[in-house]
Amino acid sequence: QVQLVESGGGLVQPGGSLRLSCTASGSISSINLMRWYRQAPGKQREWVAHVTSGGTTTYAVPVKGRFTISRDNAKNTVYLQMNSLKPEDTAVYYCNAYLFLDSWNDYWGQGTQVTVSS
Question: What is the CA radius of gyration of the chain?
Fold first, then answer.
């Protein structure tokens, strides 16, 4: 069984910063992509960023230049450093990992709320 547990969400003022973390646990053989998604109220879940096992990163246009994704392979952990936050970044943030347990599958965390408001 695999668990992905996120932490680091909260309330922050516009222009502020937050750092999200997500750790995968269980009998994991290998993790390929690790991703962050978000879902704002009344909207569909959208992809935010991903990082490969080799450290290559890709970002969605709305967050490029403000967010940084990274990972620690030894800890099966992915991070999302969010700077210059805007009210439109308000959402539940979910981590996702494409990993090998007894086959390759996607796994999701439970989500962490990020609210950007003055």
Answer: 14
